Amino acid sequence: MSEDISTKYNLLTSQRNDIFKCIQDEKFDPSAFAWGTSESWLDNYPAHIPTLYFTGTDYYFEFEKHEGSFRPTYSPGLQSEVDGFSVQHWKDVVSHVRRWLGFIRREAELPDLWDALMTERPLVNSAAKSSEETNSNAPFTIDERGRVVEGLEEIKAYLKSAKTFTLEQQKLIDHKFDYLVEASSRMGRKDWLVLLLGTLLSTAVTVGLDGASTRDWIGFASNIVRQFAGYLLLPPAPYY
Questions:
Q1: Are 72 and 96 in contact (CB under 8 A)?
Q2: Average pLDDT in the 112-135 region?
Q3: Which residue in 73, 87, 123, 224 has the fewest CB atoms around it within 10 Å?
Q4: Contacts of 204 (CB under 8 A, 6+ apart)
Q5: How confident is the model at residue 110, as a pLDDT?
């Protein structure tokens, strides 16, 4: 049986407490993080090093020490998935923890526009397919526009209930939805649906919705649009 020459690095209690306080200072909930270990091979044999994980994600911070130097490695990084450094003092490690938390906030709070796009893509594809089959990008009827306006009001009200917006942000939201209402009077139904999707995504970014709020709002908007999608995706009935 081969000898187990692996080692395990540990942080001091004072160091772990420094990390706890750092997380609090950066306005994160410490319970959203969990301690574990990861494996390093810097010394050509396995070493188990303390690693802090941001639960529910792939984000982590490894607290490695090698030949008297600290080797913090973490994800996400500044401009890449993983960043790694060599520093001499513990205070520098704490500084990197603060940087890491900032990168987590950047990634976690930004909406994933591709994810939101995929939420709405089936609706847009349905519009495109319907228009191809009927060879129509017909304008809305007066009745259909009434349903559109009602749906947009519901979507806007839901957004405004998601967080407290500044007066400027509220005006911006009103402006974007007023534009959607106006556009429904002059655009074909297929083109308008594409415009709607782009407007929802750009609004989420402009008013600073986080990722979870964006997914929630886009999902709500999708349900509202699907309530009248049967009217939007079909050409108007012919007049006799």
A1: yes
A2: 55
A3: 87
A4: 111, 116, 213, 214, 217, 218
A5: 64
